[in-house]
Write a structure and sequence with these properties.
- This protein is α/β, with parallel strands linked by helices and 401 residues long.
- 39% of the residues lie in helices and 17% in strands.
- The protein contains 15 helices and 18 strands.
- The strands form six sheets. It has a six-stranded mixed sheet with strand order 11-8-14-13-15-16, sandwiched between helices.
- Strand 3 and strand 4 form a beta hairpin.
- The chain is globular, with a radius of gyration of 22 Å.
Length: 401
């Protein structure tokens, strides 16, 4: 079976195509809607420090000019989480339309003035970091003054607003995401500081690098990339030596909703090796949502879609149709909650589902059955069914969507 796998997976991946933070949907009082051009950094993954400093200086210059004219300064930001500002493009995923509706963060409005001040505070911190060539995580920024910022989500939201407003990727602002993802398998690379990393499968995995953009000398003989939703499943596959038993591969997990670095690494690996990318998710709305983030991106980060999405991603499992096909015991299935049903209905209405008739059919099966299942449900067939039977058969016979 292993010998036939490389041939089955020998097809070429299609041509090149959050941190899942959510922007507040309610605009502060005093905000005014408008239109603004929002193509981020002309699709560049890196912006020189001199341009970053100039962009921040321009913002401060506008504030000073308003004050000199005795006008209340405002900052104009895009409504990032408004679906009306999003378009679906098959080769990219969810991306912002060229001209989006915007809102003004006013300094003279009691409800928006605090956010105006915090945006200037974080802009100042970014300016100093870029000048001194130092970096900080969003968590570092929050803990620099927890009383001022109030919560981590406030910091996350403002950083994304600033990145979108300046049309500069977050990494060029010298802000790093906290990494929670793991990678293992047939992969080696060199980190920015010269550290050589070997991800050869073993009992433990390697943490996804915090500066994906800086890694180089990537080397792999992997036949495919497998994105695993949950850490427990990822660790079980590691214990079963899945990366080397069947065919050399690279496994990645974002341990749930993927952070920015995990998404960046998947994209970088796909760009570098141009090999198939598969997902292994729970057969539930949450798992489908996570898969869609890897493949099509998220609404709140659509302004960076060109650097984050991998539209060639294939749905390997666990498919809702697999539950009946494999005669999974009903005792291990879980009824969909009302929240699950609402999430599923929301996903079914998204623009990219219309382009995926097989996905649409699977979602209809889930909706009709009103049941969901975790990947662990396969253990009801045998303890090692996932690595010994399910995945090998799927990969050999092309059981992906």
């Amino acid at each position: 079976m292993a010998s036939s796998l490389p041939g089955r997976l020998g097809w070429s991946a299609p041509g090149a195509m959050e941190d899942h933070s959510v922007c507040s949907s309610a605009a502060p009082a005093g905000d005014e809607a408008g239109l603004g051009e929002t193509s981020v950094s002309a699709r560049r993954s890196h912006v020189p420090s001199s341009e970053v400093l100039e962009a921040i200086e321009n913002v401060i210059q506008d504030v000073l000019e308003s004050l000199s004219k005795k006008k209340a300064p405002v900052l104009t930001v895009t409504r990032r989480s408004d679906w009306r500002n999003i378009e679906f493009k098959d080769s990219v995923g969810l991306q912002m339309i060229p001209y989006c509706t915007t809102k003004q963060i006013r300094s003279d409005c009691p409800r928006s003035a605090p956010k105006f001040a915090l945006m200037l505070k974080i802009l100042s911190m970014i300016y100093k970091m870029v000048q001194s060539n130092t970096y900080a995580t969003k968590r570092d920024i929050y803990y620099s003054d927890t009383q001022l910022f109030g919560s981590q989500s406030v910091v996350d939201n403002i950083i994304n607003d600033i990145s979108c407003m300046l049309k500069i990727p977050r990494r060029s602002l010298h802000i790093l995401s906290t990494t929670k993802g793991f990678v293992a398998g047939n992969l080696s690379y060199t980190e920015e500081d010269g550290t050589k990393v070997n991800c050869t499968c073993g009992a433990t995995a390697v943490t996804v690098p915090s500066n994906v953009q800086g890694i180089k000398n990537l080397n792999s003989h992997a036949k495919f990339i497998l994105i695993v939703e949950k850490d427990a499943t990822f660790q079980r596959l590691l214990d079963d030596d899945f990366c080397i038993k069947l065919s050399p591969c690279i496994m990645i997990t974002g341990r749930g909703i993927p952070d920015l670095n995990t998404r960046l690494l998947v994209r970088k690996l796909w760009d570098t090796f141009q090999i198939p990318v598969f997902t292994l998710m729970d057969a539930d709305p949450h798992g489908v949502e996570i898969m869609c983030i890897y493949k099509y991106g998220s609404v709140s980060m659509s302004f960076e879609a060109h650097h984050l999405t991998v539209p060639s991603v294939k749905w390997l499992g666990l498919l809702p149709s697999d539950l009946k096909r494999l005669n999974i015991c009903k005792d291990v299935l879980i009824p969909l909650t009302k929240q699950d049903q609402n999430k599923l209905a929301s996903i079914q209405k998204r623009p990219y589902i219309a382009c995926q008739p097989m996905w649409k059919k699977e979602l209809e099966i889930m909706a009709a059955s009103k049941m969901k299942a975790e990947i662990q449900a396969l253990t009801s067939l045998s303890s090692d069914y996932l690595s010994r039977v399910y995945l090998p058969n799927k990969l050999q016979f092309g059981g992906w969507l």
